[in-house]
Amino acid sequence: MAAARKTAALDQARPPKVTPERAAGPPDPKTGRREKLKAKRYLKELNKLQVELAYVQEWVRQTGQRIVIVFEGRDAAGKGGLIRALTERLSPRVFQVVALPAPSDREKTQLYVQRYLQKFPAAGEVIIFDRSWYNRAGVERVMGFVNDEDYEQFLERAPAMEQHFIDEGILLYKYWLEVGNAEQKRRFEARIDDPLRQWKLSPMDLPSRERWYEYSRARDRMLDATDTDAAPWRIVRSDDKKRARLNCIADLLSRIPYEKVSRPKVKLPARSNKHAYADEEAMKDRRWVAEKY
């Protein structure tokens, strides 16, 4: 419990270390939308955040921290793009993304959380769940893959389970990406005809459009039951993907108690001429790829 109180205190007291500059004014009163965030400004702000994430990475490695980050939300809420923005400049050995497929027949006979726990971090690792054990409170509930008893049991036990993680020293952060009805519809329609996005249309996506309100009720029940002081849900408005990425990463950085740790200075050694030979000549007649570009 002491660890939980310490985490909660840090969560309340720590000011943001990095805050993206305001790139536009307030929302348009007619449309409710803000001015589009230009690519140049977005990349500038993202780069600042990614530099801080690199500091987090080194802090995690040197101190042996264990971090779990959970991303949940409706289909097409923007989880994949956010996770790519968060991890693209980091080592996949430290920041590892877990996106589990549907459970196998064997996994269905295990404890529900067992296959998630197998992916939890060792010292010096950050595990990012692109959907998590909260599948039970979302898609499984709405699509009828879980019975009422197991569903209620999950909602009752999840806070205690997460409290145990925190008491064991794991830093746990949970984010829900909230996309609006009109924007989700637009993103689904864009996927239908775009060969670069069609892979994103899963068998669960189209039913999720039909069952919008069922998903809303499941979301509300999940948040009511599992939004605790020790492991709170942070809600990210995600109709604007670029702003959602910046806002979420900045919030995450403000909550991780990292420090910029020193690294030994690196000096590039000169190439040794010992054992020298015409190594470039040896490559002359190899099977080179045609330079079409």
Structure report:
- It is a single chain.
- This protein has 293 residues and is α/β, with parallel strands linked by helices.
- It has a single domain (35-258), classed as Rossmann fold (3-Layer(aba) Sandwich), CATH 3.40.50.300.
- 42% of the residues lie in helices and 11% in strands.
- The chain is built from ten helices and five strands, in the order H-H-E-H-E-H-E-H-H-E-H-H-H-E-H.
- The chain has helices at 2-13, 39-63, 79-87, 114-117, 139-142, 148-167, 181-193, 205-210, 212-226, 241-255; strands spanning 66-73, 95-98, 125-130, 171-178, 233-237.
- The protein has a five-stranded parallel beta sheet with strand order 2-3-1-4-5, sandwiched between helices.
- Helix 4 links the parallel strand 2 (95-98) and strand 3 (125-130).
- The protein is globular, with a radius of gyration of 23 Å.
- Mean pLDDT is 90; it is low at 1-16 and 20-24.
Q: Which series of helices and strands comes N to C? A: HHEHEHEHHEHHHEH
Give the amount of beta strand, in percent: 5-15%
Largest sheet, spatial ordering of strands: 2-3-1-4-5
Structural Rg? 23 Å
- In terms of quaternary structure, the protein is single chain
For the largest beta-sheet, the strand count, sense and barrel status come to:
5 strands, parallel
Mean pLDDT: 90
Treating each run of at least 4 consecutive H or I residues as one helix, how many helices?
Answer: 10
Total count of strands: 5
Overall spatial form: globular
CATH class assignment: Alpha Beta
Structural class: alpha/beta
